[in-house]
Design brief:
Largest sheet: 6 strands, antiparallel
CATH superfamily of the largest domain: Rieske [2Fe-2S] iron-sulphur domain
Bound molecules: FE2/S2 (inorganic) cluster
Shape: elongated
Strand content: 15-25%
CATH architecture of the largest domain: 3-layer Sandwich
């Protein structure tokens, strides 16, 4: 059963929103950082589909906020994790809890309530982690809870290497658009050259048979068998971190 069919049954929501005629890019989970690359004691900046984010650890969970303070739009990623675990803006020191609510405004007179205003909240996005990544969704957070995370099932937690698999993470900033990146991920014919000596070998270049195993909003998993290669087909899974300006 595909993700769309399960969504019609009501058990899960499909990535991309409820309108089957269009894909809403806000309504999908995106891996935004490898857990192993993050420091819990400081915020990290990231750009997802053109929007600047700040990723930070609130003592309980990894959080993803829009990287702008609701006060004067300073970058929260240039602030710090305060001694009490709140995300503190570098400009005037407003401090935020993990759900985005403003906990304190240092310049506020005693008894003031400006920090309780909805307008004093940082914009918090849906967040989670799995398979070694922090993941984020910018759309409806309650709906997102029913959208499966983009986990790679054969790989499990992406920390323990399962038999027959080679796991490696690389992070490269590539200045091109998301669709070009997707096209690259769906194109196994470049592997022998681009990834020579890692997951490829130039001597294996040639026609590639690709058996598409599914085609729905959760992605396009496939089984590729490079020409001339004997034995088991190569089952490769690529995960993309979208840092797209
Ligand atoms: S801009 Fe963030 S506290 Fe003023």
């Amino acid at each position: 059963m595909t993700a769309i069919e399960r969504a019609i049954e009501g058990s899960v929501a499909a990535a991309g929103g409820d309108d089957p005629s269009r894909f809403d890019w806000q309504e999908a989970w995106y891996p935004v950082a490898y857990l192993r690359d993050l420091a819990k004691g400081q915020p990290t900046a990231f750009t997802l589909l053109g929007e600047d984010l700040v990723i930070w650890w609130d003592g309980q969970a990894w959080r993803a906020f829009a990287d702008r303070c609701p006060h004067r739009l300073a970058r929260l990623s240039e602030g710090r994790i305060a001694e009490d675990g709140l995300l503190e803006c570098p400009y005037h020191g407003w401090a935020f809890q993990g759900d985005g609510t403003c906990d304190r405004i240092p310049q506020q007179v005693e008894g003031g309530t400006a920090h309780l205003s909805q307008r004093a909240c940082a914009r918090a996005y849906g967040h989670g982690d799995g398979a070694g990544d922090v993941v984020c969704v910018r759309g409806d957070r309650e709906r997102a809870a029913r959208v499966p995370l983009p986990l790679v099932e054969p790989v499990g937690d992406f920390v323990t290497e399962p038999p027959g698999w080679t796991l490696f993470d690389t992070f490269r900033d590539v200045p091109y658009d998301a669709l070009t990146l997707l096209e690259n991920v769906l194109d196994p014919s470049h592997l022998p050259f681009t990834h020579h000596r890692s997951v490829g070998n130039r001597s294996n270049a040639g026609p590639v048979e690709l058996e598409l195993q599914a085609h729905d909003r959760q992605g396009l998993p496939g089984l590729a068998r490079p020409a001339g290669q004997v034995g088991q087909p190569v089952h490769a899974v690529c995960r993309a971190l979208f840092d797209v300006a």
